[in-house]
From TrEMBL, chain A:
UniProt-listed SUPFAM superfamilies: Cytochrome c oxidase subunit I-like (SSF81442)
Transmembrane segments: 40-62, 82-110, 130-152, 172-193, 214-242, 284-301, 313-334, 340-364, 376-399, 411-434, 454-476, 496-516
Keywords: Electron transport, Heme, Iron, Membrane, Metal-binding, Respiratory chain, Transmembrane, Transmembrane helix, Transport
Protein's recorded name: Cytochrome c oxidase subunit I
UniProtKB/TrEMBL annotation, chain B:
Family matches, as SUPFAM superfamilies: Cupredoxins (SSF49503), Cytochrome c oxidase subunit II-like, transmembrane region (SSF81464)
Primary localization: membrane
InterPro entries: CcO_II, CcO_II-like_C, Copper_CuA, Cupredoxin, Cyt_c_oxidase_su2, Cyt_c_oxidase_su2_TM_sf
MF GO annotations: copper ion binding; cytochrome-c oxidase activity; oxidoreductase activity
GO CC annotation terms, alphabetical: membrane
Gene3D superfamilies referenced in this protein's UniProt entry, alphabetically: 1.10.287.90, Cupredoxins - blue copper proteins
Membrane topology reported for the UniProt record: Multi-pass membrane protein
CDD domains: CuRO_HCO_II_like_5 (cd13919)
Keyword Metal-binding attached: yes
Residue ranges occupied by any Cytochrome oxidase subunit II copper A binding domain in the UniProt entry: 112-254
UniProt protein name: cytochrome-c oxidase
Keywords: Copper, Electron transport, Membrane, Metal-binding, Respiratory chain, Translocase, Transmembrane, Transmembrane helix, Transport
Endpoints of the signal sequence: none
Amino acid sequence: MGDIRHEANAELPPLEVPDVMPPHAHGWWAKYVFSQDAKYIAVQYACTALAIGLVALVLSWLMRLQLGFPGVFDFITPEAYYQFITMHGMIMVIYLLTAIFLGGFGNYLIPLMVGARDMVFPFVNMLSYWIYLLAVLVLVASFFVPGGPTGAGWTLYPPQAILSGTPGGQQAGIVLMLVSLILFIIGFTMGGLNYVVTVLQARTRGMTMMRLPLTIWGIFTATVMALLAFPALFVACVMMLFDRLLGTSFFMPMLVEMGEKLSYGGGSPIAFQHLFWFFGHPEVYIVALPAFGIVSDLIAVHARKNIFGYRMMVWAIVIIGALSFVVWAHHMYVSGMHPWFGYFFATTTLIIAVPTAIKVYNWVLTLWRGDIHLTLPMLFALAFIVTFVNGGLTGLFLGNVVVDVPLSDTMFVVAHFHMVMGVAPIMVIFGAIYHWYPKITGRMLNEAMGQVHFWVTFLGAYAIFFPMHYVGLVGVPRRYYELGEPAFISTPVGGLNAFISVAALIVGAAQILFLFNLGWSLRHGRDAGSNPWRATSLEWQTPDTPPRHGNWGESLPLVYRWAYDYSVPGAAEDFIAQNDPVTPEPPGGRL
Amino acid sequence: MMIALVLALVVIASVAFHLLSPWWWTPIASNWDYIDNTLIITFWITGVVFAAVVLFMAYCVFRFRHQEGRKADFNPENKRLEIWLTVATALGVAAMLLPGLFVWKQFVTVPDTATEVEVVGQQWSWSFRLPGQDGRLGTSDPQWMNLDNPLGVNPHDPTGTDDVIVEGGELYLPVNRPVKMSLRSIDVLHNFYVPEFRAKMDMVPGMVTFFWFEPTRTGEFEVLCAELCGTGHGFMRGYVQVVEQEEYDEWLQEQLTFAEYANAVPVEDQPTRLAERY
Ligand code: HEM
Ligand SMILES: [Cu+2]
Ligand SMILES: [Cu+2]
């Protein structure tokens, strides 16, 4: 097993960064508002992300009302509908999912799980949050400016994004969106550098890379990817801002808008799409890899079993991360790019399916002969696997260039990406919150509310998005304010759409219950103790719960083993903490 | 316990919905049944994998759920099993990719016999241009656009004078004749999409994109725009009438050529208002 477990008496390597206590904050403001403690920053990130996520959820209700009951709600005009989808999509992908996985879980878990006292650059880490908050506020401001937010679709494709036929195109909406994205990227880069350097340099003694919990591998790889991918979006946003404000023509060819010839000329709309998706596809994995990592740990802990094929899992994460930089144009099969690209991008896209499938196999094989505790985190992990497998498999339709031709830009695509990067990662976020809330607050979340939340969310989300594939297969295009009853539809989809909309309202309501639970359990939750799940990884071995500033009291923990010593033969308990030096002698000799 | 049952039910319900629900693609009206076939292969392979994985999971949850005294196995890795699974997956993926690439080659290889038809998109309507007697379309560029020349046909290109211009969103095509759709846009991205033809392609200002197909049955087919193009996106519709050759020829006779267009259509009847800068 090589690196995974040391002999108990082996020499531990020295620390790479000296063990210094991060400076203590003085005063209320420095402690609770402008905190430089990664744990506070994590909670700030997560609360902000959930708050803006709630806006996106309400927008999804409004869109579903329009799609399910067209013509009933007068205030949903076509302009408003396109503004809703744009803000909903962008908020969900960037301001909720990216922020909560990296800024939220990354900040909380990285220092604790690698055995560090904090992030290596606490001040920059704090700045990262405040710039993120500013980005969110700029985004929210666009709801209140004349013309409202942009309605260009979350892909912001020029030329329409900056022309008058699109809501916010010639007003402030698009400008605020671009500025907000630019701010987000600046803020993220500050946090991202921290996460990477902390994982590489500030691991405690004995915590080799191959002993890191998969959670850290997922967040680490995703952060490296984000640091490489976001600059493409940054450049695209800056150039589009120039096109919009200064009249440059990076993405604007000569064109005649509503009968009037504009002064643009020579630019390429497709160049924007390449830049956008060079960021956009890795973005899918920036959200997915932390989810992959976290869910691996949830499954191992709650099935009391080591994750199956740890090394394969690490390599799969790294390979998926690398490959996801050469598949971007599978979003552009019908964009008019040279058709020969289709061969290349279809091939690379389907190759990614192999390491992804391996991860799925290893999750379910971890369940095999486990001791499965059906706790809330485990339930959400199972729901993740179902929705992720479902959404991953429909990816094979859309990745396979020619099959994508009839399906692209239909509701099939909407169903696919919601399943794979909407519902599936959100299941992991919920599972992770139920799992780590006890460490963050010292109290358990209420189980009964959690059960209701789980069943409604899992079955409801499946009921929303599974049938939606067939709406797309029928031929219904996405981003349609109102389709009517065109002749190509032999069985009307109206009833199905109404059903989906009702399911969406119910699922949304269940999220309110969840948010209530978060607040309620803060006071009334059962006392959690320091290690309620009897888990091995370091964050559960802190001297205090919730962990204090500096995390580890007097001295850093020493690490003697990987994070997956569950149910080790011969051991007294069914888990051995990573910092426990004693390896039991199994009945049949050493493994 | 309950979750094991529910997982199994999710599989059963999904398969039942797939097989029994009335929602399925609209009957095809082009030569691209190859695409439909590839789609069917993909449905089968992915459906089997989905059912297998989720049912296996359901079984594990049922069989290995926590009970008093249960202890999990300790087996970190199993090289052989992992290699087997990898190889099997790679084969499954290849079984979908290879037919897919094969059909893609056909999709992007326009037959020599195809006649060319130009589709021009603008916010939010469709126009068309068909080659005249000479069988060729003249060149075009936005710089030539004006009231008499809404599609920007190059007035100095003699091949363009006999081109047939159709504004107003109804295109006739002869059945069983391959056509190459040359796609242009004069403002933003659009996408020419007819569900029955299975094919679609973006229209990009500043460049000409294309796809080809062969209509295989007569009838009226609705054109939808499938690329977000602003507020009117959902209302940007048109029609393709696939007809027998004679009917097509008759229709073509009635249309105006580029040369006639400027003189024939009074300014107030023209669908777009164009700046008089050129
Ligand atoms: C209950 C949960 C949700 C519901 C009911 C919902 C519903 C919708 C609807 C109705 C659309 C517009 C479809 C169209 O007309 O094209 C949409 C678009 C979108 N959604 Fe969601 N959504 C949900 C959650 C999420 C989540 C968690 C994500 C995170 C990835 C997400 C990402 C997106 C994106 C990226 C778009 C595309 C926006 C665009 O076309 O520009 N959604 N969603
Ligand atoms: Cu259009
Ligand atoms: Cu459109």
